[in-house]
Design goal:
Structural class: alpha+beta
Radius of gyration: 17 Å
Number of helices: 4
Shape: globular
């Protein structure tokens, strides 16, 4: 019998390099960036519910200011996975509730929302047994935001295009860093 809950870590990232190029026809700027996931992470707990649809809650944390409406990328990612599952006619009854425990500061350039969206795609796919393959998850991730595809792979990677073209790299040596987030958002 499938489990009714699933908990996933949703890791932050840093841009080790970032080159920004000309504005593209789609309105985005072209980029080339070496990205690296770091140990700072949010936690998403997914729970099956008998009611259809997706609900998101975010308990009060030190991060603050996290929306739980349609502007939240985790909620949008979960709904995108469910919609893709419906199109494949493999979605059963019921829905999902997501508890999002934030540790990654908002508007810090660390990709917290994008990471949450990728975790939601993976978590909903896994918990509801949607059978979405990696190319489908990548396509959904790219429709949610430029950084989201990176978080499906994580680790060390080069991101090109608007950020959706990901080439994984071998991990470099481990190192320490201090991340400081001022009051102003990025």
């Amino acid at each position: 019998m499938p489990s009714d809950t699933l908990t996933l870590a949703s890791y932050a990232k840093v841009n080790l390099t970032l080159d920004v190029f000309n504005k593209r026809a789609d309105g985005y700027h072209g980029i080339a960036s070496v990205m690296q996931t770091v140990s700072l992470a949010d936690t998403l707990q997914f729970t099956r519910t008998p009611e259809p649809g997706v609900k998101l809650s975010c308990p009060v944390t030190s991060v603050g200011g996290v929306p739980v409406d349609e502007t939240n990328l985790a909620l949008r990612g979960a709904k995108a996975a469910i919609e893709a599952g419906r199109k494949r006619s493999i979605l059963g009854e019921g829905g999902i509730h997501i508890d999002l425990i934030k540790q990654i500061p908002a508007q810090a350039g660390l990709g917290g929302g994008s990471s949450n969206a990728a975790a939601a795609l993976v978590g909903v796919n896994r918990l509801l047994d949607l059978g979405l393959d990696m190319p489908t998850l990548r396509e959904l991730a790219g429709s949610l935001g430029s950084d989201v595809p990176f978080f499906l792979a994580g680790g060390t990677a080069v991101a090109r295009g608007r950020g959706e073209q990901i080439t994984s790299l071998s991990d470099g040596p481990a190192f320490w860093m201090v991340i400081v987030k001022p009051e102003e958002g990025v």
